[in-house]
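Input chain follows. Return structure tokens only.
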Amino acid sequence: MISSAIEQATWNAIGIFLAAASAASTVVGMLLQKQGLKRENKSLYRLGIFIFAVVKPVTQIAALYVAPLSLVAPLASLTILLNVVIVPYLQGMKISRVSIISGFTLSCGCVGTSLAGAHGSQSWTYIELTALGMQNWALTSFLFASLLIASLVLKLTRDDVGANGVVLVAAIPSLASALNNVMLKVLLNAVWTAPPISLLAMLVTVATTAFLQVWSTAIGVEMFDLLTFVPVQISEQILLTILYSIDFFNEELENSRGFELSSAAILAGVIMTLRHPGETSEGYIKIDEAAQVCPDSTRAERESSDEAMDLWEPGPWGRQVSNAANEGKDLWEPGPWGRQVSNPGPWVRQISNSAP
């Protein structure tokens, strides 16, 4: 009995370490994607995608294999703390007091859900997993259908999403992660006993949810500031994953009251983050509103150009149109992402040359 408890504690510790590595790779992957977009560096952007799509899942799968899902999932809160520290440092900005408080509140809530969640590890046979799947087929179908519909809506209307849409955009990778984590846990337990057709179905589900998670996260990273997107997305992911895992595997909470209070802390942290988003030079700008929000520093730089200069010149928003050589001309034209400047750079949302 004692030896079994010690062995379980050892595996839980290994799972915590692997989950921490997964959290670190999440921050690094997102940050490299953001820097690649900012610098128009495809290699840097692709490296970020690789870390997020390969390194993060490998460590996550290993953590799920050795520890309970409800213990591993909340440790993604480390992503929030790392994000609060690393992003301001690299962007050369001073973090606000509200961001520190909201990040601390979110982290405490996530750690609290980890401590109050289920800690026991259990293995299931294929027959038992089939029974669990049939018991939860309605919830699983609803979550999967919601994920597909939300992904389609995001693809069709991404240019119409404003700064306040971060909760909805973040819900897509969060849903995908919850489904992916549970299906991975099922696959790891049934890989040697399930029939080929069932294994194929599980592999397709895992691959689909993994792709949608990476795809929607990349869009969220492009659209929103990391100090806003990361804490909201990770908090939603943790709550959805824990609740779905508890329901699917019939897990019992160690402390239901503590779990409720920790969930409330997460909600409060998300609200604080939305009311006081992180302020950086890369805040979200809707394309059609770009001309109205062009800052004075950008306007002065554009107006200082002369007719002999190249149409494109550096600026705080990346490559943008100079103003001098194109007065009276409409440089906006339809494009695949909405209205954009003629001959745009590959990764940048350009600023209109019209004066506010």
